[in-house]
Specification:
The protein is mainly α. Helix content is about 60%, strand content about 0%.
């Protein structure tokens, strides 16, 4: 019994009132593990501890679901750019999905990896993606980025 003589019922969700599930009642049969959750768990176990990002690079390269690749790219973006910047730039070169490409650009921006962004911008033919890269470079303090922007202005 809880305070005031009321009985608290523990639902199968693990907390009184259904917890984070919003009190939705009983859980159904075993739920499938969301691949994005698997990436987060992998990163929290291996990514920051010892900087092991090989599994995330593999997911970013090979996962069939674009959302899963984007999640892995996000986690690579917040890791050490010396270890993951080249991998992200390489993935960009072989990627066909523009949303995944945008995530790679954002990850490289987070890393302040102006060198990789300039290399990508030089090869990019999609003007929307190129504009995003140029915008991101304009927000960074990167010698390579500044040199590239000056080169664009002088054309």
């Amino acid at each position: 019994r809880g305070r005031g003589g009321k009985t608290h019922v523990q639902r199968r969700g693990g907390s009184p009132g259904g917890g984070a599930r919003g009190g939705g009642g009983e859980l159904g049969p075993l739920e499938r593990v969301d691949p994005a959750v698997e990436v987060e768990q992998t990163f929290s176990r291996a990514g920051f501890v010892g900087g092991k990002t090989d599994h995330l690079v593999e997911v970013a390269r090979t996962a069939k679901e674009p959302e899963l690749r984007q999640q892995a790219i996000h986690w690579l973006g917040v890791s050490d750019s010396r270890r993951t910047g080249d991998a992200l730039a390489s993935i960009y070169g072989s990627e066909s999905n523009n949303e995944v490409k945008k995530q790679i650009v954002h990850a490289l921006f987070i890393q302040s990896n102006g060198k990789a962004l300039v290399e990508i911008a030089r090869k990019e033919t999609n003007m929307d993606l190129k504009k995003q890269i140029v915008h991101d470079l304009s927000q960074m303090k990167s010698k390579e980025g500044t040199d590239y922007l000056l080169e664009l202005l002088n054309k």
